Amino acid sequence: MKKLRVILLRTLLVIILLPVIVILCIFLNYHMIGLSTHHKIYTSISEIPSREYTLVLGGGNYRPGWWVNHTFNHRMHTSARLFKSEKTEKIIASGMKLSEELDEVADMKLVLLEYGVPKSAILPDYQGLRTWSSVERSKQIYGADSIIIVSQHGQLERALFIAECIGINAIGMEAEPSPWKHRYWVYREYLARVKCTLDCFSYLFNLN
Fold it and tell me: Tens digits of per-residue pLDDT, 177-193?
């Protein structure tokens, strides 16, 4: 009977402590990625070093006259400013194409052209299904081993962490955030960073 009580007590402790440990690990992982990349992030275009390539990450679909995706628009605007300020020569527009109506890259090209970036300077990547693939393909497809990455702060930290893992010399240009941010995106970023860290371990130790 005493042995059974000990087993039950230990089981109860595991049930109580395990979620706490998991949450703590997620929290620490989130801030570890932030601390390891914050020194690579710039907020001023005049201060950021020049790079031949800029990678701008897809930020959802965009339809002029239908709705305004502020996250998307701010990324495009920042990328165009980098080009006009002669901080970069080529912009890799990386996103998804699910159908003719859901084509992130086409939307990115359209807005970049409206901002005055010439078509010859826009390099499309239609297989940017997630942040990891966008960063990895910038090197695999375009040979960009030294780049500027453009996104909002949370995703930008994660993208720079991925670049470090893959062996790309990357710095980040922070785009203006959306005027509103749903709590869902905060939680999503915590979990995305867990996946990011696992992907990095898998990449480094060839576990794929």
Answer: 877 766 777 888 999 99
Q: With cut-offs at 50, 70 and 90, classify the pLDDT of residue 4.
A: low
**Does a structural domain hold residue 14?**
no
Q: CA-CA distances (angstroms) from residue 205 to 168, 183, 192?
A: 17, 34, 20
Q: What mean pLDDT is predicted for residues 148-156?
A: 95
* CA-based nearest residue to 125, from 113, 110, 136: 136
Residue 160 lies in a domain: yes
- Per DSSP (E only), the strands in 79-120 are 90-94
CATH number of 85's domain? 3.40.50.620
Q: Could you give phi then psi for residue 96, rounded to 5 degrees? A: -110, 150
Domain-located, residue 30: no
Number of domains in the chain: 1
Q: How many Å is the Cα radius of gyration of the chain?
A: 20
Strand bridging mode 169-174 / 41-42: parallel
Residue 16 resides in a domain: no
pLDDT tens-digit readout, 60-83: 765 655 667 788 999 999 999 999
Give the domain extent around 171: 37-204
